[in-house]
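seq as requested:
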Amino acid sequence: MSQHKEQQLIEIIKLLAQEEFFSGQAIADRLGVSRAYVWKLIQQLQTLGLGIESVTGKGYCLEHQVELLDATHLQRRLPRHDIDLRLMTESSNEALKGDGFEHNRLVIAEYQSAGRGRRGRQWVSPLASNLYWSLGWKTQLPVQQLGGLSLVVGLAIVTALNELGVSGVELKWPNDVRYQGRKLGGILVELSGDMVGGLQVIIGVGLNVHMSQTAADDIEQEWINLQEVEPRIRRQDVLAEIVLCLERYLQQFAEQGFQCFLEEWRRVDECYNKKVTILQGQEAINGTGAGVDDNGAFLLQTGKGVKPIYAGEVSLRFR
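struct tokens:
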């Protein structure tokens, strides 16, 4: 999509964000285009997951309040990061791969056409509703010491949300952010490079903030929006607070490893002392959650003792 068309879509969103009806002609006059072209732009925004109400004789209005992220404001809040804010991208993680990687580069998308979760699952990413972002982090740590990284990212998210007045958020090993048994967000960590030049780590986060039920029809598990928990919360504040908190946590992780986060993990571990099943290929292993070890491996209490489970091609289900 051309930058000019993206700007037209942004102008319509900002216009409708005034929370009143605008006729097709009023929008056309503002953009200097035809009413027929405005209708096509409105259709495109609806296809991207933005809830727009159309009423004969009144025009168009947003179904709920929308506030686009502001790159200038974010850059002021996050001066040590290179902010790359996009209206649309295929995947914020993909945008950081290869030549796109830079340490502390933060790619943020209002919409993802091919967002991904763990194990290649689709991540539903409607326009201007949630948070989708990826951070580039270069480290000299050996890959063997990065097992607990996704858990540390989750802890940073929980801490940031606590600071914003959202308590009761839990973490489900290895990468789910949950609230009262429903999914609030997810984490996808991807590695490339080697120890000679340092590992390139891409930390991807998706967090539900204000997603409509229609946009989420393809989600197979129970989910919840952040604004259902705290109606006054703003996406911009959530993003900035999480990234600032993550910056501190990554520094601590690099210096002290995952061990220093064990006690913090225990306080928010949704799986602790719960009956679970680990699905590993064709094998299903039943047991009880017994926390995690010093490297972030899940500890499964079975009839034959405690078995460590390492993140990868595994799924954890509650029984």
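The chain has a mean pLDDT of 91.
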